[in-house]
């Protein structure tokens, strides 16, 4: 009997384990990054480019499968096939699809999009993959030479072991923090039943946002999180007239840990801070929220705090009793813990990938970047932010018919003096 050579495989990193365990019919666990070029995409050249970079990303061009005790990822034997883009972004990956390939390479007119099952990587690793794919495509199509800088990797060399490491295990602290927390307010609406996913993107000049941030003395992420909290406050005051019955509004902000530790991993390496306002105490003026969020985020973004959160998550993984428990029991336990301590503890997840920098030669070929984060199971909306070439793109995806949150959010920005162009995939 002949046996096929097994491809390289890796255990899921510490953050990745929750995604296959907690996935539901309403939670896709998929996010998208896109680059819009100046000319229409040539699918055959895009496919060749995927083949060219496949071996450089052995933790992304993979399939996900389960063993007796844990899920794992394994390199695919064939390169992911490029596909014409479907009717809407971040369609759910069925497990049968993930077991074949957990990443989608899509094209539509002049846009290249990559959709990732979140167990593979975070937005920062995904952006490096997309940059390298686009750079390789441009080289193949136009015969140009693009330097290996600003997140464009050299595809002629093998992936370094540091790029494949689980940095949570490497940098975790020794003292764990607790998980006890209160539930947050979430807005509601009428569910969309036909599978359509509404997408609304607000586009504005990053300098307009920065000028307001300078006035308050805060970062762009802090300012936008405050705008989000203010929008939620408006919704809750309409939904819950009695002040004593209101819940806190909490904004879940992913944090790129590579900014705190010397990690170059291409796998998940993010944690979070969750600034909040306790609306049971009364109405907050916008400047109050900005000041409060500035201090809360500043306290959360410390190495000691990140160490403690990492230690909490890693402690469970390293528990010797848990390690020998069969996977189906682990799944049930992780899902139960997630339902109790996970997304119900925040009102929305809002992820800002920051400003995209590229080798200068690429800029004349690329118009824009987009980042789309699908909503979690219990939350009606997801929000994601990315900037490129002087523009900032703020995208909302929702599972309900009513664009209540988006309306409140962008209205608040406009009232502050920001000029917003609204784009939508509305039918």
Specify the structural class.
alpha+beta
- Main pleated sheet: 8 strands, mixed
CATH topology of the largest domain: Chloramphenicol Acetyltransferase
- How are helices and strands ordered from N to C? EHEHEEEHEEHHHEHHEEEHHHHEEEEHE
Termini separation comes to 55 Å
Shape: globular
Total domain units: 2
* CATH class annotation of the largest domain: Alpha Beta
Helix content: 25-40%
Fourth-level CATH superfamily of the largest domain: Nonribosomal peptide synthetase, condensation domain
Mean pLDDT: 89
- Work out the helix count: 13
Report the β-strand fraction as a percent range. Answer: 15-25%
How many whole angstroms does the radius of gyration measure?
A: 21 Å
Written description of the protein model:
This protein has helices at 18-22, 43-53, 95-98, 123-142, 161-164, 167-171, 206-216, 220-239, 286-300, 303-318, 320-323, 327-341, 404-415, and strands at residues 9-11, 30-37, 62-66, 71-75, 82-84, 103-108, 111-117, 199-205, 249-256, 270-273, 276-277, 348-355, 366-373, 381-388, 391-398, 421-424. With 427 residues, the protein is an alpha+beta fold. The protein has two domains: 9-171, Chloramphenicol acetyltransferase-like domain (Chloramphenicol Acetyltransferase), CATH 3.30.559.10; 199-359 and 372-424, Nonribosomal peptide synthetase, condensation domain (Chloramphenicol Acetyltransferase, 2-Layer Sandwich). 42% of the residues are buried.
Blueprint (SSEs and pairs):
Elements: E1 9-11, H1 18-22, E2 30-37, H2 43-53, E3 62-66, E4 71-75, E5 82-84, H3 95-98, E6 103-108, E7 111-117, H4 123-142, H5 161-164, H6 167-171, E8 199-205, H7 206-216, H8 220-239, E9 249-256, E10 270-273, E11 276-277, H9 286-300, H10 303-318, H11 320-323, H12 327-341, E12 348-355, E13 366-373, E14 381-388, E15 391-398, H13 404-415, E16 421-424
Parallel strand pairs: 5-6, 9-12, 12-14
Antiparallel strand pairs: 1-4, 2-7, 2-13, 3-4, 6-7, 8-15, 8-16, 9-10, 9-11, 14-15
